[in-house]
Amino acid sequence: MEIKKESFLKSGLINLFQEKTGEVDFKFGTVTIPPGERIPKEGFSIHEENEYAVIIEGEVEGESGGKAFCTPENDATFIPAGEAHWVENTGNKSCKVVWVLIKS
């Protein structure tokens, strides 16, 4: 078993684990998005991994693949590799998200 201490990245993301096993590369972490905060601050995020996320607390609105979405607490999202996206916490409390990036 491995226990990781929180390791904050400049973007506010916490990367808890990163592992490459055979042909699969994955990253697992959390992020807390304060009310009114947008990720990224401008433009879109695009990465080569599939992104899976679960909204633990709060909600986010955003755009992925040119389509607007709203994801409330306890719902999950999937964003395919290479799809441009962004999120914003439009609520009045912090939004807590658990995320996994998987590249195979």
UniProtKB/TrEMBL annotation:
In the UniProt record, does the keyword Chaperone occur?
Answer: no
Residues in Cupin type-2 domain copies: 30-100
Does this entry carry the keyword Chloroplast? no
Pfam families listed in its UniProt record: Cupin_2
Q: Which residues form a coiled coil?
A: none
Question: Which InterPro entries does this entry report, sorted A to Z?
Answer: Cupin_2, GPI/OXD, RmlC-like_jellyroll, RmlC_Cupin_sf
Keywords associated with the record: Metal-binding
SUPFAM superfamilies named in the record: RmlC-like cupins (SSF51182)
Superkingdom: Bacteria
- Gene3D superfamilies recorded: Jelly Rolls
Q: Which PANTHER family match?
A: CUPIN TYPE-2 DOMAIN-CONTAINING PROTEIN (PTHR35848:SF6), OXALATE-BINDING PROTEIN (PTHR35848)
Task: Return the protein name.
Answer: Cupin domain-containing protein
> What organism does the record attribute this protein to?
Oceanobacillus jeddahense
